[in-house]
Amino acid sequence: MRYEGNIYSPHIAGDDYILQCTIGCSHNQCTFCYMYKDKQYRLRELNEILKDIELAKDYYGDVKKVFLADGDALSMPVENLIKILDCLYDTFPSLIYVGTYASAVSILNKTLAELIDLQNHGLVEAHLGVESGDEDVLRAIRKGVSRGEMVQAGRRIRQAGINLFVTVILGLAGKAPKAWEHARNTALICNEIQPDYIGILTIIVQPGTELYEKIRNGEFEVPEEMEILTELRLMIQDMELNHSGITSIHPSNCIYLENMMPEGKDELLRTLTGIIDNKDVSRLRPRETERV
User: Fold this and answer.
1) Among the listed residues 168, 290, 172, 175, the one whose alpha carbon sits nearest the alpha carbon of residue 221
2) 244 in helix, strand or coil?
3) Which of 36, 70, 180, 230 is the most buried (most CB within 10 A)?
4) Residues pairing with 17 in the sheet
5) Which residues pair with 83 in a beta bridge?
6) Where are the domains of the chain?
7) For the domain with range 11-283, which CATH number is right: 3.40.50.12780, 1.10.10.10, 3.20.20.70, 3.40.50.720?
8) H runs (alpha helix) in 167-264
9) Euclidean distance between CA atoms 16 and 66, whole angstroms
10) Which residue has the higher pLDDT, 246 or 32?
11) Whole-model pTM above 0.85?
12) Which residue intervals of 14-124 are DSSP H helices?
């Protein structure tokens, strides 16, 4: 298949056919992110994307799930996205899922009616990197939107009938006490948005990022594993979700947890408390380590 540069997709989309609709990320300024530093953001030509779908049919046969890459495929014009969706469903009769990364800015640049139109043409899920619900943290990581704009974007996706998968990042505020504020405020923003699914990640430090330089200069300190777990416990403790899945099944994490909220909340808290109180490192798994 034809791809430009490294291709990234959510961990849960590992078996999907990845269709590269944009090159790079429309924002590409987050201090912790290393994924698209080698790319200059641009939209791919529509005819090239449609040709890729034709090639994918020959290469993969019928597929059931497709994920639109790179970092913000929703930044494409609505009319182009609709043509891509229609072509995908026409080409793959067994297709049941199309997902995409979506930035808050790209969501807010589209009206509710436009998002509903995308849902009607088969856009099933949007992945939104919330990262934190703390205003200071969002500014520090140069996320490019305010807390209020993030809430508005998440709610608009849900109002359109598109499933919303948000990611939040443990350790992003450094050590306590700021870590506790990050945890509580991230729980609160999830409560306000009420996403369908919440993916928990842990910060990974990568050379070439602004965060890496801050650590080298002594301006930021990455929390230890038990501090990370305490942050996660506090976050889950303050979550008041009506019907949301939560998962930490990702290589960046030292523990894999998955459950539905609110019914699984007590079980998650019991598991975390048992590990933290007993300092039971035997229950932790190796994770992608900080490369400092």
Assistant:
1) 175
2) strand
3) 70
4) 66
5) none
6) 11-283
7) 3.20.20.70
8) 178-193, 210-216, 225-237
9) 5
10) 246
11) yes
12) 46-60, 78-91, 104-108, 112-120
